[in-house]
Structure formats: structure tokens, C-alpha cells
């Protein structure tokens, strides 16, 4: 029997759905004002210094919230790890705040709490990064803590053992995750023997870690002449620079610097790989190829082209595969570009029965990027989406610090923050089509499938032979 309360709830829900549907279907007003002009993001007023040890320092004073954000970026991420022990830099960075020569993990946590602080460290493919923030009245204490954790970690044996245990458990969880499995195979297909292919921890690399090996790795990687320190917030630049000199001025490099990583080759033949997942009811599809670095002239027009293809809700992939065909709930394409290269990637998860049909649609859509020019509406929507997200995101203080550090790691100047939006607005339909021919030709795309071979094999015969992937 349905109670009065439940009846009321159902009626309210139905009314809400009806009102939502009515709101969605309501026509837009005819006399909407035109879009305003694009507003480039002003170049931040950066006070720049290079310490005698080679450390580059950028200070960006900002009015507003009484907060300071610090970003330390050091060239030497997981792509610098050796092939036998991939991603050990990831474990090293994770242990920065678990103990220093002066403080244990509890004392570090207490100091952060006392200054309203937040702290995180990680290793990406190109760099090791520390992100921290606190109330601006405690900027000196925050910089002291960042310097202590990044430059003088003690790697306590107990904390190393715990981190290794957690990493092994996470690895087991990941190995059962079809999305993680698909990206491991995709990186292998796209990057081959390039170091970008080995950015995932393995059991062997985890087991090989010791406090001594982490100290040796730290001595090699954490080098001031290969580092940038960004400080953004309500601070006095001169005072902050004095503190930086006190805390980071004695930082010295140990031993020879690691060899630079080569640029990703873009001419490798595409691969078709199948990761067997018996009993799976859906197929995880990854579809893409390698690209040039961010500093390449293709970067901005390729960003616009990817947005037209699959970077927004009005994109070709979403409108076709989701809205028209109903094959996938949230298909999209993305562009991952780093210091030495990157990739384009379509991510589409579908039920088994439409695996072959989805692959055919992806090939058609990718082919169309080189043969069907972007319409004025597609181009306008893509540019405004890129500019709007970019401008909104970089109003946030922490995002500004992160963006500046990311550009520096990728070899871009700070002024790229302004030219990015204006140059995006200049991209033409012809440039988008040229990017389509260069980066989206279907025959150049590696295809990774994670699924049940018994369920999808018959659909794959028209597409070609898929090689079983074993890591």
C-alpha cells in the first residue's frame, strides 16, 4: 500500500521531471545578445629570480583571499626511471611528507594544521611536483615546510614499508580495473619502447624499493638547476624572496644529472590489441595515436580539432555515439600533450553487442575530421568552450600556480597563458581539417579493446586481427 507521504514524494518527483522536460524543450528567446569579445587572460605580474644554485623562482602577488599557494616542479618524473623499475619516482614523492631529518609524519601534519595548510606530492611523466597552501600570514612557515619535505626527506623504514604495502594493494585493485588495463595497453601501443610507456608501478619495482634506493633516487632527481618554485597569493614579493633564499639557497645537486628523455616518435605503426576479460558484459574501447609536444605549432589547432571531435557535449562523438546511436553513455576524446610528446585518445565503453558497430562509427568520425570541415557553429562552440573553461579555471589561485608550473615543465613561457586564448580564437576550419588529416586518420589509430573475446570476436573480423595483450 502506498502511503500519503510516498504519494506526495512521487507526485513531486513527477512534477519535477515534467518541469525539467518543459524547461529543456522551451525555445530560446529570439533576441539573445551576441557573444561578447574574447577576453585574454592577462599575463600575471611575475617577479622572477634565479638563485645562485640555479633554482628558478616566480612570485605572483595577488589581492583577495589571505592565502598563499606554492608549487615546486622538478624535471625528472617517471619517464626518467629505468625500465626494470618503472615509476619508482612515484613512491619517492609520496613519502616526502612522511618524515624529514627534523620532523616525523605526525609533526609535519601538526605544522600544516597550525597554519591552515594543505600538502601533496606526486610524480608525473615529466616532473616531480609538490603542491602546498596555507594562510598567507604563514607563508614563511609554509615555504620552510616545503623545503624541508622536498629537500630533506628521511624515508623512514617503517613508512617505506607501509607505502610499499599500500602500493601493492593498489596495484592489485588496478589490475582488476578494465579502465586501468586499457590504459596500460594503450600506452604500450602508442609509446612502444619510449619511457612514457612505463609510468605504472609493477610488483617488481615496488618490491625493489628501500630507504637507501629512495635516498639515491632523491639525490639524482631533486636538482635546483632543473626546478621551478611558483608562489602565488597575498604576499610581499621581496619578503617571500628573502625566505626562499633562506630555505632553498643551500640546495645543491648530487652527482650527474639524469639524461634527458627523447621526443615521442609519431610514425610508429598502429596496433590492435585485445585484453581478454572473460565474462565481461561490456567492451572498453581506447582509440588513438601519439602527438607532438606542447611547444609544437600543432598544439593549439589540434586542441580545437579534438574539441570538435569529442571534447564537449556538442562534439561529433557525443552527438553520434551517444545521442544518435545510443551506444555509450559518456563517450569522449581527449588530448594529453606533455614535454616530449603526447597522444590523442577516444574513450568509449559499450555493451558487447555494439562493439563492432562502435568501432565502425569511430573510424567514420575520425575520417570525417579530415574530409568534413568544421562548420562555423562547431568551430565557435569549440573555441568558446576551450576559452571559457581555461579562463574560469585559472581564476583559481591554486590552478594558476599549477598552470604556470605545467607550462614551464613543457618548455612554454609564462606569456603562453595569454596567447593561448587569443591564438585559439584564430584557428580556422582549414587548420582543424589539416589536424584531422594528420592526427585522426583511422588507419593511424591504435585500437585497444578490453572485453570478452567469446562475445566480441565475430564482430572484429571486418576490422582486422587483434593481438592478445599480455603485460
Automatic annotation (TrEMBL):
Keywords: Signal. Residues 66-197 form the Peptidase M16 N-terminal domain. The keyword Transcription does not apply. Residues 209-384 form the Peptidase M16 C-terminal domain. Residues 1-23 form the signal peptide. InterPro entries: Metalloenz_LuxS/M16, MPP/UQCRC_Complex, Pept_M16_N, Peptidase_M16_C. This is Insulinase family protein. It comes from Dyella kyungheensis.
